[in-house]
Each structure stands twice: as C-alpha cells, then as structure tokens.
Write a structure and sequence with these properties.
132 residues, 5 helices, 0% strand, flat, 74% helix, mainly alpha
Length: 132
Amino acid sequence: MKKVKDERLKGQLIKNFKTAFVIENSFILIVLVYESFKNYGEIINFQNPLWVSFMIGVISLSILSQKVTAAVEDKPKISKKRLLIYFLLEFLAFSLLFILIIPKYIWLSVICGGIVALITSGIFIYNNHYRY
C-alpha cells in the first residue's frame, strides 16, 4: 500500500475517523439510555464497560480538542482571581454532584469533585496561555 500524500485525502481520512467516532459513541449512548430505562440506577457505575468506554472517549476527545481550540488570541486573558473563583465554583458544584451520586462516601465525593475541578481549571489555564 502506498502512503497517502494528498492533503485532501488526509482531510477526508480525518473526517472519516470523526464520523466513525460519532457513530460509535452514538450507539453506545443509545444502549446506555435503553439499559437505564430497563435497570434504573444500576447503569451509571464503573462496572459497566459501556459507560466507562463512553466516558473515556468523551474525555479524551475534549482533552485532545484543546490543542485545536486553545488558540484564542482575540480574547483577553482571564485574571488569576477569576480563575481561582472558577476553580472554587467547579469544586463546589462537582463535589455536590458526586455527593448526590455517591452519598455513602462523602470524602470520596469531595476528592472526585476536586480532581474534576483541577482538570477543568488546568484546561482553563492552558487556554489562558494563548490569549493576549
């Protein structure tokens, strides 16, 4: 097989990967919704491989797309005080969300909320680097 050197074909190949990813995740989401109606409350856990694969796909797509969408040079930088406020709001919101999901383990919920807030704040800081 010859290596593809035409830029149009490379672009089409990337679009094909994107389309396949969307179709795959749509099917996984449909199966998850169907199972959630069938077995309410048992579907959203880490023992379900469909849920884990869907979350890994969505998280990896969002992290990888930061390199493409991060260059926002026409917007001013966000101040460090505002970034800290965003972090605290995210920490509180995600901690409360995890407390609703895992009510037995409050400390685990707070740790999970902190991890999510750290990741999203890290993405904000990374994007802030490219602003003027």
